[in-house]
Task: inverse folding
């Protein structure tokens, strides 16, 4: 499959502990299987401690790129948390950006403490509509909880990204990558979560 | 299966920079690897530990970086290739040994030191450019710019080390070590090696000045090799309008800057992988073709100043240059560099306009999101025992009322300096420094000092650097309380085992060094507390503060919440009884959400009640003891 743009710049964002790094690794591995150059830059350090985290993926048929996407140059944003989509689009967005967003908020401590406001769903949706070319909101956390644990959120979101057909890798390559990455006893549950994610955006 | 042991030469893999370094060591036939974990270096030894049993190599988590490099050098002295990896602070810890080892030389087995710097201190207390250790110690230095470089340079570093019997330094940074990219694998050697110490050899830096001279001669040899190194390359026109000289993470950013500004026919990029000693002929050749030079590198102007030094000598013969970089103010001499900074630097030097995106959109995007997006403060994880310990410390110091305070160091518990730790931590420097400082504070009574002093350190830090500070306090009859925050892992760097966990780097059982017994042997009073018992812990701290008998130790022990969550189900299912929670009218001033601030507790503004976020809560149950109305309820977790 071909790239719509070279390099294709993808940002996966969320909150520490949501499985950002694993999601970016899965996507990166699948792309390398399809013979792309992939560079992934990850914000570390704060990853387990409630901070905002990001992975930058640079995908190219031509060459290796730096692990950081320049300002305004994101083509796709996958957000495991809604305000994180806004935070990233604010810095890296442009009129052609696509966004795939998990609608379940994780409140910053300033919000849980009642010191800061978390924007309403309508406000978030309005801003995204204003700034992105096209977007998908999916309820990945609720779907993950139905599987028994919020830990499936990231795999469902990877599925949701694949369902949009925005990246040049098919379902089959991802299934192989999932089997290669996870221990055997979790293959079935992760594949199920992945497929459910695809259904959430497919054809929309 | 771990990719780094894949026996498939030519295979194209997505590797983390640290995995690429580990793979390079394996392709060189490394037999011995030792380190103390520290980001961004931790995964080098972490990945080697995973494959150690299969590949029959020895890998250890050492107690600190100096010991790690000493252990690795022993393998080198006995003919085996050995590696030690550390972050910039680790180089400081190991530096006394490094600056003797450079003079003694290494053994028949190549010895490589990988230092992974953390520009912008993303997971460090300090910012530092560790490349100076190479210049300070007259050691060969290389800096990978790509993931392939990371693997290939590490492999070559062993050959180079053996060719001159010297330690070789490979310097990485976060954006290489903690990034991922394509790497083509090479071959894994199969031969076995016997370790033997040739007793005709001595490794003693006697006649230091002569050995120092010999070291300079070794560097001359290295310089010759570096002249034709495949790790240095040039891309651009023969006579560029601007020569961009870069190394390490600067390579990709420079390439992106030149392409973004469409300057490929005007700007040439000289990428140097061998940054100390510099290859003079190669540099002279390229400098002769340019009049304007821009340096791009991360943190200090190391390459920049070293090239300028050479250029000053050559100036009478090959001319003069206008230099741009850190000293001209075009590139920042602190923090990280990134594509935007380098595109802007190049745009300024070449007088090209650059706008990252359409101005109207950019402004709208920034304003709109700034108005809506709340900040995310770092905090302790839900169910973290450190939150409970800091709560008990805060309560005890308040009850005591004499202005007591806490000194500490680097670890997850460093977050104790902010709201998550109720602003308790007042000093934070190197590993173990909180206790060293406490030992000094505890001597100030004769100058009228009358405040209680508590130092905190983690369990891994206790073994790394706290023990000498503690003994210093005991020996000199200081007066303070050490609180060991024992969460039974090295949490901040990725849950590595240590001397107190009963397990080695490769997962085999190990003796557990008992912190309490070790402290008892020093003759100090030692108590143990479970931080989840808030009242009991508070009482113990209060009692220890008031027992003015020299140095006292409290071990506050609870397994890291993240480790626990992986191993077992949550202890409780928590809920807030909306009938009992009175919200603003309670008089508790929303102690649970506003002050205790566990991210698993949410203030529901509409309902005017607290509630549990079941996606975040780890079910530790501690918050139930915070609520004065007993509105937070622990229920048995039946899942």
Result:
């Amino acid at each position: 499959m071909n790239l719509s743009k070279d390099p294709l710049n993808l940002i996966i964002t969320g909150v520490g502990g949501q499985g950002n790094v694993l999601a970016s690794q899965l996507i990166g591995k699948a792309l390398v299987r399809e013979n792309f150059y992939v560079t992934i830059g990850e914000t570390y350090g704060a990853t387990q401690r409630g901070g905002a985290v990001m992975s930058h993926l640079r995908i190219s048929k031509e060459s290796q790129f730096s692990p950081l996407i320049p300002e305004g140059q994101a083509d796709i944003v996958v957000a495991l948390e809604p305000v994180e989509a806004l935070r990233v689009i604010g810095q890296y967005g442009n009129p052609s950006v696509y966004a795939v967003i998990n609608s379940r908020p994780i409140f910053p401590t300033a919000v849980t403490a009642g010191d800061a406001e978390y924007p309403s769903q309508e406000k978030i949706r309005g801003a995204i509509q204003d700034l992105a070319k096209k977007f998908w909101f999916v309820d990945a956390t609720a779907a993950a909880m139905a599987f028994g644990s919020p830990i499936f959120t990231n795999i469902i979101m990877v599925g949701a990204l694949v369902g949009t057909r925005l990246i040049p890798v098919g379902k089959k390559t991802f299934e192989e990558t999932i089997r290669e990455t996870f221990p055997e006893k979790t293959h079935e549950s992760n594949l199920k979560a992945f497929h459910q994610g695809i259904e959430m955006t497919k054809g929309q | 299966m771990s990719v780094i042991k894949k026996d498939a030469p030519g295979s194209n893999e997505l590797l983390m920079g640290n995995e690429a370094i580990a793979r390079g060591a394996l392709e060189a036939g490394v037999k011995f690897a030792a380190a103390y974990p520290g980001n961004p270096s931790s995964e080098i030894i972490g990945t080697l530990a995973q494959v150690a049993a299969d590949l029959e190599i020895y890998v250890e988590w050492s107690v600190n970086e100096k010991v790690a490099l000493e252990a690795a050098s022993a393998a080198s002295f006995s003919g085996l290739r050995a590696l030690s990896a550390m972050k910039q602070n680790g180089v400081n810890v190991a530096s006394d040994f490094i600056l003797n080892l450079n003079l003694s030389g290494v053994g028949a087995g190549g010895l490589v030191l990988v230092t992974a710097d953390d520009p912008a201190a993303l997971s460090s207390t300090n910012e530092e450019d560790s490349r100076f250790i190479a210049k300070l110690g007259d050691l060969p230095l290389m800096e990978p710019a790509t993931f392939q470089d990371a693997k290939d340079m590490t492999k070559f570093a062993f050959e180079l080390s053996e060719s001159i019997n010297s330690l070789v330094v490979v310097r990485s940074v976060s954006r290489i070590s903690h990034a991922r990219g394509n790497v083509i694998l090479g071959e894994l050697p199969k031969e076995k090696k016997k370790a033997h110490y040739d007793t005709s050899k001595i490794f003693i830096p006697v006649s230091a000045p002569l050995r120092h001279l010999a070291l300079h001669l070794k560097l001359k040899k290295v310089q010759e090799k570096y002249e034709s190194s495949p790790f240095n390359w040039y891309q651009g026109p023969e006579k560029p309008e601007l020569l961009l000289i870069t190394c390490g993470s600067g390579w990709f950013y420079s390439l992106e800057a030149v392409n973004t500004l469409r300057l490929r026919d005007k700007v040439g990029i000289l990428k140097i992988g061998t940054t100390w000693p510099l290859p003079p002929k190669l540099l002279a050749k390229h400098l002769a073709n340019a009049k304007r030079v821009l340096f791009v590198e991360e943190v200090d102007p190391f390459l920049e100043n070293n090239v300028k030094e050479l250029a000053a000598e050559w100036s009478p013969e090959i001319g003069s240059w206008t230099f741009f970089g850190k000293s001209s103010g075009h590139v920042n001499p602190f923090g990280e560099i990134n594509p935007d900074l380098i595109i802007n630097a190049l745009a300024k030097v070449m007088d090209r306009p650059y706008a990252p995106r359409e101005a109207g959109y950019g402004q709208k995007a920034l304003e709109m999101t700034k108005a809506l997006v709340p900040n995310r403060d770092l905090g302790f994880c839900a169910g973290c025992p450190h939150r409970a310990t800091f709560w008990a410390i805060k309560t005890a110091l308040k009850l005591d009322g004499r202005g007591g305070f806490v000194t500490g160091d680097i670890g997850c518990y460093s977050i104790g300096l902010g709201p998550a730790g109720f602003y308790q931590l007042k000093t934070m420097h190197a590993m173990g420094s909180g206790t060293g400082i406490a030992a000094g504070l505890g001597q100030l009574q004769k100058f009228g000092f009358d405040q209680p002093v508590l130092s905190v350190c983690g369990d891994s830090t206790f073994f790394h650097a706290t023990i000498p500070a503690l003994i210093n306090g005991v020996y000199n009859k200081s007066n303070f309380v050490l609180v060991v925050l024992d969460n039974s892992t090295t949490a901040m760097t990725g849950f590595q085992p240590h001397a107190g966990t009963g397990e080695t780097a490769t997962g085999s059982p190990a003796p557990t060094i008992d912190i309490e017994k070790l402290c008892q042997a020093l003759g100090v009073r030692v108590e143990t507390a479970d931080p989840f018992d808030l009242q009991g812990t508070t009482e113990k701290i209060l009692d220890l503060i008031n027992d003015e008998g020299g140095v006292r130790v409290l071990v506050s022990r609870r397994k890291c919440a993240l480790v626990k969550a992986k191993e077992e189900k949550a202890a409780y299912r928590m809920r807030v009884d909306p009938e009992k929670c009175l919200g603003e009218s309670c008089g508790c001033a929303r102690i649970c959400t506003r002050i205790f601030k566990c991210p698993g507790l949410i203030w529901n503004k509409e309902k005017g009640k607290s509630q549990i976020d079941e996606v975040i809560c780890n079910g530790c149950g501690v918050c139930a003891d915070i609520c004065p109305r007993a509105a937070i309820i622990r229920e048995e977790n039946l899942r």
Notes: The helical segments of chain A are 20-33, 82-92, 109-112, 121-131, 140-147, 153-164, 171-181, 187-201. The longest strand of chain A covers residues 52-60. Chain A is about 40% helix and 20% strand.
